[in-house]
Amino acid sequence: MIDIKKYLTTICILVAILILGTVIVNIFISSLAHIFGLLINILVLSIIIIIIFSTIVTYNVIKDKKVSSSLMKINLKIANLLFNPVIFIASSIGIPKNEIRKIFVKLNNSYIYSNEYNFNSEDILILIPHCIQKNSCKLKVTNKIENCAKCGLCNVSDLVKLKEKTGMNVFIATGGTLARKIIIDNKPKAVIAVACERDLTSGIQDMKHIPVLGVFNKRPNGPCVDTLIDIHEIENAINFLTNKK
Ligand code: SF4
């Protein structure tokens, strides 16, 4: 569940900081050339207008209202630029960083879903975090997912079946570095990445040249232990990227 109010609070604080900063700068530069002060005011005003534009688009996307693909694309670029200051302000006022990350992933996914693709199965790579494997299972599935004995105690067996059914490349990565290496080695045209809010956000920000659909894992046992995935969400993502729906 995405809480847009927390995002709006953070944006209001960011705009307030910008306005306050401009007032202070204006007081200090009153003795300097008039043109310099004017330039600073125009710059800050432009930034505030861009932030307000981005906030309106973000609000509409989160509320599942119709937004054009090109507006979403522009907004995603702005959200990328604003991401670090927004995360900083949110955590400073006690808003969990994951609330902002969820919004970023939603903006990314909505933009991808606003386009049309027609990839072959083998062009798509599915990246799964290692914590999906049952903690007590000793089989080494990170190098080769087929090593899973399909006992059904965790979602790895579902993924093996999905791989057999679709011919999709499915990899289990032990961390962000290995995930990046898998992408570089396999050169996919699209990625379906399953991870927590933090890893998904950094992965999406790293892979700007190809579509990366983010799917959140479920963590009923806390972070990084026996996590779960909704296999239907993965199947829906595959159907969309291969134009089968
Ligand atoms: S489904 Fe596969 S990976 Fe999961 S516990 Fe069973 S054998 Fe291990």
UniProtKB/TrEMBL annotation:
Keywords: Membrane, Transmembrane, Transmembrane helix. InterPro entries: DUF116. The chain crosses the membrane at residues 7-29, 35-62, 74-95. Pfam families: DUF116. It comes from the Bacteria. This is PF01976 protein. It comes from Romboutsia ilealis.
